[in-house]
Amino acid sequence: xxxxxxxxxxxxxxxxxxxxxxxxxxxxxxxxxxxxxxxxxxxxxxxxxxxxxxxxxxxxxxxxxxxxxxxxxxxxxxxxxxxxxxxxxxxxxxxxxxxxxxxxxxxxxxxxxxxxxxxxxxxxxxxxxxxxxxxxxxxxxxxxxxxxxxxxxxxxxxxxxxxxxxxxxxxxxxxxxxxxxxxxxxxxxxxxxxxxxxxxxxxxxxxxxxxxxxxxxxxxxxxxxxxxxxxxxxxxxxxxxxxx
Length: 244
Hints:
The chain is an alpha/beta fold. The protein is 37% helix and 19% strand. The chain has 8 helices and 12 strands.
């Protein structure tokens, strides 16, 4: 099965590509480094020729609502249009748990993406997952200097490879719309995870909890699964940290 992977050179994308190959599929990486730009459509028609499915794990590093909406709207529109021309039979995208409950600028882009996929005309599946284990370390990188200011909130991080495995599993079957959410095996305080990373990496950083003004949705667990059935990953944060 030929499967196009938008963002196939990123954290999740690399896992998706490797797992597709292991399962005997033919992954096609959609990335500017491979001559394909999903925001302009350059190279898309050729890359999607003969593709059964598209797995969209593309991403943009921004906290800006405007930039996020622009990236995800443009990229999704181009993927759906090219997918329709190529006869793609399953459009699958990775999204984030809590985007409809937590008012972050970046999440507005993901909500726009989901809406376009629903209305796009292709059979679709959206998998919402919690933050990856790498999230705590990413927060450290975004907060240079001796202090690391971390929002006080609960998270339920999941292994990136396990999310990729679920995406590949979903891509091999029929479109199901909004799939059950995916989360890791344990709930943690984000501040404590960042402190664990600091200790494990031998860094000298003071981690300062930042209360969220007004006790917003995120502080009340808005980044956790919304209830009901969800797919639970098996790798614990501590196991990931030791392996890294």
